[in-house]
Write a structure and sequence with these properties.
single chain; alpha+beta; globular; binds cobalt (II) ion
Length: 153
């Protein structure tokens, strides 16, 4: 898993803190149609489904190797994913990296001057702790840090 974040030189670079890609998030307008493609056509096992009211989404996780595809359908137009769909249409929404300690990594990134969306970790899917970095920090890619729960929901 990820090494602890440690500043390594005067240029503000960090020792590796992202363990692996946990999932890619895909914004979808039609959740059942998206499930049909990923589960039935691509053969990815559907392993979890959860409504995350806090984030305004219904989310589905499908396994692909050690990683997941996370399908995100908005609970309403006036939600982050609802606004994303209205503006950009369905498609890749974010990339999520697995970390051992999301609070520690968030602190290191803040200290390195990375623009954050979440100043503190919050509850994510399957009892994970997550935090989002601003897309401008990663070349336009919305980036999520995920600390998976010791015991999944
Ligand atoms: Co995600």
């Amino acid at each position: 898993m990820a090494a602890k974040a440690i500043r390594t030189d005067a240029e503000g670079t960090l020792a590796p803190v992202f363990g692996s890609i946990d999932h890619i998030g895909v914004a979808v307008a039609d959740l059942e149609a998206a499930i049909a493609v990923h589960r039935d056509t691509y053969g990815m096992p559907l392993v979890h489904r959860e409504t995350i009211a806090d984030q305004g989404v219904e989310a589905v996780l499908l396994d692909v190797g050690d990683s997941h595809v996370e399908l995100l359908a908005p609970l309403g137009d006036d939600t982050p994913v609802g606004r994303f769909l209205a503006k950009r249409g369905p498609g890749l929404h974010h990339v999520a990296y697995r970390v051992d300690d999301v609070a520690a990594v968030l602190g290191e990134l803040r200290a390195a001057g990375v623009r954050l969306i979440d100043e503190e970790p919050r509850a994510g899917i399957r009892n994970s702790q997550v935090a989002f970095l601003h897309p401008s920090a990663s070349g336009g890619v919305l980036t999520e840090l995920v600390q998976i729960a010791a015991v999944h929901a």
